[in-house]
């Protein structure tokens, strides 16, 4: 049940990563409270358990922890579990909220001994705050600058020992000096259908919803390997089952419900399918520039690139090349279409991603 790390820029979708307040409230109620309840991420869970157990035996604070991975895989949940396992409070903030070094200094100076500071989207923190964080993580102190110009003085501020848990969806944007100061780094992987099935069964029990094994499997197969999405789909299927069926979630009920909500058997939603159909039917499978493809589906370029494209690439339905976006044979097959003779066909997978190319114009830059 690990469905956190929502990003403010992502448009609301049933299978997207953003969540409204109601979803967030339900998600919070379903979050596992300790590592034994946490489903999936076996390697990260085992390694983190050793780190926390050793810290408790020493009677000290845990090392700083960096968690990376796609939205919805459990980074915020794990940060809360770290605090619970250590028996300390947790303070939650985000990188975009810290735009000045003074913002970070105010947060750090109010921490209690051993407290966990969770910093979501840490790669989006401002550079001055980031440089202040280096000293805070290593020496548990910061220098607060008072005044300006030649008369400015640095006042050292001692901090209590604390554990920083940083979360990022783009680990490559973290500068090496910051990344190297974390004692433990864990990468969150997408979930297998069997693991998502366990997530769904646990959530169904907490929501008092009867779900068959086949029903859970149907939902898991359309959840993009992401627990947050699995739980959101479960709630929508529950609504359908209570209104249109006897309240019991079977494979048939789940399939009918997700058809109503426009989530197909591979987890593609309306936007994903619109992008694929435009690429195949309007542009013959590509190559086509991203801006042109976005205009064809009536969306912003950033929406197509950041919301729809990553999943389509991961599923092997679309490839990025220097000339633009190209459909794979799997894309034609998924929509039940036959590729015209001479259509460019990518072999599948992620293709070759060249940032800044294939963005404008019909056939690339």
TrEMBL record:
One of its GO terms (biological process) is DNA recombination. The keyword Protein biosynthesis does not apply. Residues 344-365 are annotated as: Disordered. DNA binds at residues 301, 320, 325. It is found in: Cytoplasm. Its EC number is 3.6.4.-. Belongs to the RuvB family. Has 3 domains, the large (RuvB-L) and small ATPase (RuvB-S) domains and the C-terminal head (RuvB-H) domain. The head domain binds DNA, while the ATPase domains jointly bind ATP, ADP or are empty depending on the state of the subunit in the translocation cycle. During a single DNA translocation step the structure of each domain remains the same, but their relative positions change. This is Holliday junction branch migration complex subunit RuvB. It comes from Actinacidiphila rubida.
């Amino acid at each position: 049940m690990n469905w956190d790390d929502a990003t403010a820029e992502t448009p609301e979708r049933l299978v997207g990563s953003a969540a409204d307040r109601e979803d967030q409230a339900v998600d919070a109620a379903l979050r596992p409270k300790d590592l034994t309840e946490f489903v999936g991420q076996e390697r990260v869970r085992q390694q983190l358990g050793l780190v926390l157990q050793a810290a408790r035996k020493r009677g000290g604070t845990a090392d700083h922890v960096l968690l990376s991975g796609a939205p919805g895989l459990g980074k915020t949940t794990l940060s809360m579990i770290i605090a619970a396992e250590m028996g300390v409070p947790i303070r939650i903030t985000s990188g975009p909220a810290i735009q000045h070094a003074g913002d970070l200094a105010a947060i750090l100076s109010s921490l209690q001994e051993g407290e966990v500071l969770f910093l979501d989207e840490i790669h989006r923190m401002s550079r001055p705050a980031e440089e202040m964080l280096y000293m805070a993580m290593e020496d548990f102190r910061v220098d607060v600058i008072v005044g300006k110009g030649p008369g400015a003085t640095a006042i050292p501020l001692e901090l209590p020992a604390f554990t920083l848990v940083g979360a990022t969806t783009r680990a490559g944007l973290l500068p090496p000096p910051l990344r190297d100061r974390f004692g433990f780094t864990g990468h969150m992987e997408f979930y297998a259908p069997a693991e998502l099935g366990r997530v769904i069964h646990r959530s169904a029990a907490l929501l008092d919803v009867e779900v068959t094994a086949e029903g859970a499997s149907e939902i898991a197969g359309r959840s993009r390997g992401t627990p947050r999405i699995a739980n959101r789909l479960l709630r929508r299927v529950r609504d359908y089952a209570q209104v249109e069926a006897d309240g019991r979630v079977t494979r048939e009920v789940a399939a009918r419900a997700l058809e109503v909500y426009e989530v197909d058997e591979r987890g593609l939603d309306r936007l994903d399918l619109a992008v694929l159909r435009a690429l195949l039917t309007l542009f013959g499978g590509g190559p086509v520039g991203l801006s042109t493809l976005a205009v064809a589906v009536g969306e912003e370029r950033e929406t197509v690139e950041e919301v729809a494209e990553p999943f389509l690439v991961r599923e092997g339905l679309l490839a990025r090349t220097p000339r633009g976006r190209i459909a794979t044979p799997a894309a034609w097959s998924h929509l039940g279409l036959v590729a015209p003779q001479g259509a460019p066909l990518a072999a599948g997978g992620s293709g070759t991603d060249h940032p800044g190319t294939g963005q404008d114009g019909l056939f690339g830059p």
